[in-house]
Backbone:
């Protein structure tokens, strides 16, 4: 390592590497008695031994006094943000990960950045670090791996130069790959944009530089480049700062109050008040009575004009004297000085503020409101006893009904008899201001200050929500939405009954009917369905419509932005934090993948955060994960960590990618404006990984970022398995059979294969059932029938996720049940958002069918009976029905306490989810995906990378039959219970639907066993009779399943047995044997 620089505090900072070969063999980076692998801070003004600042964190305690921060491997390079004072550290990794660290301004030092216990976010196990259990360090704000030839980070600077669009972006690069990126940090999460195509030089980037005005330079071994732009640069440089004037103005470095293209500091400022003279005249700070373009005070000060009466008005200008109501003077915000001595009284006589009811020797002014809000009028600088009145309108004479306010002695200055008054004003409305004395003798100099505050650009006089702001102002400033463009805030449409809001999300229902729409880069799925629909031999699988839209509309992908659980969860997560910036960042991160088209439109336009309120009124946002989003995604490597966390990018050129070559682009271009072309990358996992590899920024209770948390990483789990090369869509979007045309327009198209089913399958059948039950209230894309079909398809899909095997044996006096559950998926089971769980339900019965033992029982609310109040332990042997084996991931906050909050989660309290087959400790990403808790000491758990778990049940004497069910819940009721403290309407709306839903778990696999083991039952037909027979002799209870699903006993019989009544009344009959 090697870097030295002065900080904004005047101290000298220097970064050092760990000083060793690979893997920090001397363990120096974590050793506070070694200067290696550190950031040190020295006082250059110190004398003799006083060069160590007294406020360094290790002064007077264990550790070298000069150390400021530690845990660095090779800081190359570091820089301070000249605006904020934040310290950015680019730390070169060892073999796998490069990282960017950030020390906030105002830090008191002492940060541990993790090396050599962690490389990036990954535990290295080096030196004494072990599994990093209990090890605490500051998480990097960004990491990237060595894929694509990357090897070594080169740190840069936060851009503070003249280019407006780059303000606040931190630039960095990779030495080997020559890639350049910019990083935007919002205090919670980082957004990284690759800029290699714009900025990448042809040789290795060794460093960055910065000049005195904030320009950033890229340095290679032989050349120096400056980041430039065509956004500005007119050549003139009046202030000689090395930056063209228009760039100074565009970046905010200079102001241009009169919009003449010249920085204010270069314009004439005769009165020295910091504003060009032209602006003084524009905003009324100065007057120009002789219209020579020079403020009156400057005319007088320079001698150009005389002012013998010292009234501040050049003598050549006519003396206003007194003036009547019907000829008022113009008044604007600012200070007006005038003398009432020559004035006479001009009615009306009425006046309610005291005295004799009159304003004497008055001046009248006309004031036009430039905003809606409050106008404050102060006469406090006056030397006479004043009175003041304000009237609405300019017609004369005025009357009592137009009087807005009056004042006699309202000035709060001690000993003052002057007036002061504040009145409400409406933009564009004119008012009359009347100023004078309390009696005819009170005349002389008056100083009147006019100050208006409020909102510019609106003010219709209506305040339907009674919030103290006009309705059109609410709409204009975004505090209210107007989705139907009727000029009325949505909450008022709903409150008056003009619009319905069945799902209680604050958006009129008519705005949530997506239908046909088109945005800058996307169109509705219905536009695609015009051609890609079913027809004769097209998307017709045995009479079932298999067209993309028909299959997609009932999926959770299509309804991702309407998912009431997701919407409620976002509300609960944001309610934990009071900082509006933190709330905005959380919402923006959450909607990125649930409303990706709206989010991507806003990203491309450079418009910042995309929030829940915007999603609800945006048809592009409400359509969830749709056709023109997925089919416009640019190719990305699944291993590219910059594309994780919603880092997908849609191409900006309306190029639609599909699996087939040789497609005529004209029909699609004519109908939708998109141009189709082959894009083989659609089958790559990079398309899915962008949203389904999510590291959330962990926050403490105050909303401060404290680390990164792997909220869902199924692709990382898959890489450490025997399924690493498989495509996500191979399971979740299986192929349709055979070849067929893929469009009904134009006719006569050739058959195409392979064709992917767009019924994107998952395991959360419960939420699909809930959507189907509430389709109308939610305004779902698919109707209740299509949603219910997808729910049933998901239940079938789920049954292929795991296998269940079991056997009974007598061990001494104990009947032992041995069970094996094996994961058949390519990722952990369960995977995804950590509110899912799977458990084993075991029921033992005696010969009469009486229940003797029941582990994993559940109630009507979906709660598992007997589950521990905190976190249920991982078991190897269960002999008590109050214990249950639950495979789940339970989050923990920064205090190690279990939590269901995604934003408070920093680690795992438990993760015994079943790994995929082939998952081993030496495999890729193991540090991130490793199991946590008691399962790590269970020798049967994932033994040899089996992807299975085995356990024993000790059953009571008298057991004759055992029933097993491997149950799954897409959302744990305990996770829902954690939301019940919120009073937000969307949360309450969801809870009402949840409480009415069928929360029964979905069985992945079931199994029945008998003890002693029953013989194999053979069933045959003889004429109209069912003949049951078995080997080994013996008599058994024969049961037949009745039409209501219950088992009906036919008595105890030997083999063979004839059921004479079954065929006449049943199309399907099921039989089983039980021990007598």
Residues:
């Amino acid at each position: 390592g090697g870097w030295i620089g002065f900080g904004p505090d005047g101290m000298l900072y220097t970064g050092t590497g760990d000083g060793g070969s690979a893997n920090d063999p001397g363990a120096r980076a974590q050793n506070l008695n070694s200067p290696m692998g550190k950031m040190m801070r020295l006082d250059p003004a110190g004398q003799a031994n006083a060069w160590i600042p007294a406020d360094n964190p290790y002064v007077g305690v264990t550790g070298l006094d000069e150390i400021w921060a530690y845990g660095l491997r090779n800081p190359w390079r570091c820089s301070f943000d000249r605006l904020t004072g934040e310290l950015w550290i680019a730390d070169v990794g060892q073999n796998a990960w490069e990282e960017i660290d950030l020390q906030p301004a105002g830090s008191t030092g002492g940060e541990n950045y993790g090396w050599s216990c962690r490389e990036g976010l990954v535990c290295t196990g080096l030196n004494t670090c072990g599994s990093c259990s209990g090890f605490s360090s500051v998480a990097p704000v960004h990491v990237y791996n060595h894929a694509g030839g990357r090897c070594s980070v080169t740190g840069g600077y936060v851009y503070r130069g003249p280019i407006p669009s780059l303000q606040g972006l931190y630039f960095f690069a990779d030495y080997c790959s020559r890639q350049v990126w910019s990083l935007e940090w919002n205090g919670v999460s980082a957004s990284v944009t690759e800029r290699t195509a714009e900025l990448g030089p042809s040789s290795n980037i060794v460093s960055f530089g910065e000049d005195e005005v904030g320009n950033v330079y890229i340095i290679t071994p032989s050349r120096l480049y400056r980041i430039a732009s065509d956004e500005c640069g007119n050549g003139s440089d009046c202030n000689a700062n090395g930056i063209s004037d228009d760039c100074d103005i565009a970046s905010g470095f200079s102001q241009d109050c009169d919009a003449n293209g010249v920085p204010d500091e270069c314009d004439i400022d005769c009165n020295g008040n910091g504003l060009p003279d032209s602006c003084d005249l524009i905003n009324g700070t100065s007057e120009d009575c002789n219209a020579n373009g020079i403020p009156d005070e400057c005319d007088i000060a320079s001698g150009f004009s005389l002012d013998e009466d010292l009234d501040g008005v050049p003598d050549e200008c006519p003396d206003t004297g007194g003036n009547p109501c019907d000829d008022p003077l113009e008044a604007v915000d600012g200070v007006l000085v005038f003398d009432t001595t020559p004035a006479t009284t001009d009615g009306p006589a009425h006046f309610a503020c005291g005295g004799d009811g009159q304003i004497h020797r008055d001046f009248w002014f006309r004031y036009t409101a430039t905003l809606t809000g409050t106008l404050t009028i102060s006469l406090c600088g006056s030397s006479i006893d004043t009175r003041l009145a304000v009237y609405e309108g300019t017609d004369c004479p005025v009357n009592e009904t137009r009087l807005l306010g009056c004042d006699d002695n309202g000035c709060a200055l001690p000993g003052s008899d002057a007036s002061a008054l504040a009145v409400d004003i409406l933009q564009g409305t004119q008012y009359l201001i009347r100023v004078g004395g309390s009696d005819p003798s009170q005349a002389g100099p008056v100083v009147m200050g006019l100050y208006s505050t409020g909102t510019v650009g609106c003010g219709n006089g209506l305040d339907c929500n009674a919030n103290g702001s006009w309705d059109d102002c609410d709409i204009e400033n975004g505090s209210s939405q107007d989705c139907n463009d009727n000029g009325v805030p949505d909450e008022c449409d709903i409150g008056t009954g003009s619009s319905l809001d069945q799902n209680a999300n604050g958006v009129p229902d008519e705005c949530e009917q997506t239908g046909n729409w088109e945005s800058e880069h996307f169109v509705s799925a219905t536009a695609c369905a015009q051609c890609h629909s079913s027809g004769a031999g097209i998307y017709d699988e045995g009479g079932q419509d298999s067209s993309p839209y028909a299959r997609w509309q009932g999926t959770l992908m299509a309804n991702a932005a309407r998912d009431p659980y997701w919407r409620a969860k976002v509300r609960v997560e944001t309610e934990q934090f009071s900082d509006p910036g933190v709330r905005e960042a959380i919402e923006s991160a959450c909607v990125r993948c649930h409303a990706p088209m709206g989010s991507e439109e806003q990203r491309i336009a450079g418009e910042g955060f995309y929030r829940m309120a915007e999603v609800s009124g945006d048809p592009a946002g409400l359509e969830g994960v749709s056709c023109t989003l997925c089919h416009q995604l640019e190719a990305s490597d699944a291993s590219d960590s910059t594309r994780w966390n919603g880092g997908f990018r849609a191409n900006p050129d309306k190029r639609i990618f599909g699996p087939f070559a040789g497609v005529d682009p004209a029909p699609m271009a004519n109908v939708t404006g998109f141009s189709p072309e082959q894009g083989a990358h659609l089958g790559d996992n990079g398309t899915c990984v962008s949203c389904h590899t999510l590291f959330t920024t962990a926050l403490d209770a105050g909303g401060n970022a404290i680390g990164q948390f792997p909220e869902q990483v199924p692709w990382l789990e898959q890489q450490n398995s025997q399924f690493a090369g498989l495509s996500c869509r191979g399971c979740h979007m299986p192929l349709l059979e055979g070849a067929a045309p893929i469009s009904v327009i134009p006719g006569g198209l050739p058959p195409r294969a392979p064709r992917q089913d767009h019924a994107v399958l998952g395991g959360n059948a419960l939420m699909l059932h809930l959507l189907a039950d509430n389709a109308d209230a939610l305004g779902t894309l698919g109707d209740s029938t299509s949603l219910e079909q997808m729910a049933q398809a998901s239940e079938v899909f789920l049954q292929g996720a795991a296998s269940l095997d079991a056997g009974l044996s007598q061990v001494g006096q104990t009947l032992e049940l041995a069970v094996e559950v094996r994961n058949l998926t390519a990722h952990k089971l369960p995977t995804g958002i950590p509110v899912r769980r799977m458990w084993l339900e075991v029921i033992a019965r005696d010969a009469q069918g009486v229940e003797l033992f029941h582990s994993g029982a559940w109630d009507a609310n979906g709660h598992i009976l007997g589950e521990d109040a905190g976190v249920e332990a991982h078991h190897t042997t269960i002999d008590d029905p109050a214990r249950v084996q639950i495979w789940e991931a339970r989050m923990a906050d920064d205090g190690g306490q279990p939590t269901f909050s995604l934003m408070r989660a920093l680690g795992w309290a438990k993760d015994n989810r079943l790994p995929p087959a082939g998952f081993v400790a030496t495999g890729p990403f193991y540090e991130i995906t490793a199991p946590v808790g008691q399962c790590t000491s269970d020798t049967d758990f994932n033994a040899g990378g089996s992807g299975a778990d085995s356990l024993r049940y000790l059953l009571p004497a008298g057991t004759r039959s055992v029933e097993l069910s491997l149950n799954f819940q897409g959302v744990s009721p305990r996770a829902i219970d954690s939301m019940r403290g919120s009073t937000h309407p969307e949360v309450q709306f969801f809870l009402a639907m949840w409480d009415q839903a069928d929360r029964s778990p979905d069985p992945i696999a079931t199994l029945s066993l008998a003890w002693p083991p029953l013989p194999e039952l053979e069933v045959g037909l003889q004429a109209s009779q069912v003949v049951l027979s078995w080997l080994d002799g013996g008599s058994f209870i024969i049961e037949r399943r009745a039409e209501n699903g219950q088992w009906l006993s036919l008595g105890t019989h030997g083999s063979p047995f004839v059921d004479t009544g079954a065929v006449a009344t049943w199309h399907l009959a099921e039989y089983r044997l039980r021990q007598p």
About this structure: Residues 509-762+764-779 form one domain. The first strand starts at residue 3 and ends at 6.
